[in-house]
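ligand=zinc ion
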Amino acid sequence: MIRPPVGAGAAFSEAGDGDVRNDPTARGGLSRRLGIATEWATLRQVHGAHVVEAVGPGPQGEADAIWTTRNGLPVGVFTADCFGVVLHADDAVGVAHAGWRGARSGVVSRLAAVMSEAGHAPRRAMVGPGIRACCFEVGLEVAEHFPGAQTTTTWGTLSVDLPAVIVTQLGGLDVDVIEGCTRHEDRFFSHRRDGTRQRQTALGWIP
Ligand SMILES: [Zn+2]
């Protein structure tokens, strides 16, 4: 698992932590190592920009961003190439699931806006591991949505720098971008590499 450098309530799991989406035992083990509740508030993720406020543990509906002001309630999204992004306010925490579709629809800035409108403006953000520009080969139909973030893969084809897009969408916030490319580093699950149904998590909680 990856912990942010500062003691904020956030963690990003790796393949070695197990399939935390589908395996309750893996989820429990990760929770115990983090010292947090084993029941997380989660979503049915659909690559959109809908935001929900978590009212308790368990599934909170169909959305791609979730936040809470409840102490002791972890909020989590599951990823296997998409990026998990954790936002911390003084008394609230949110997490978003952003692949290229989520980035295109602005799910991360939408989460920040919803938290701000509720009086919990985020002050700090962490962008977790995901498929980086080195490996995110795309066609023109994807790249055209990100004119300022087009680059090339390590094998010379068109790619998009999604973390750069996300950081731009979080303009004004203090953002830590965690290292790690899920596709070319074996320590992560990668849908592109393996077609896996296994997932890692990006978790946030109020510390
Ligand atoms: Zn890579």
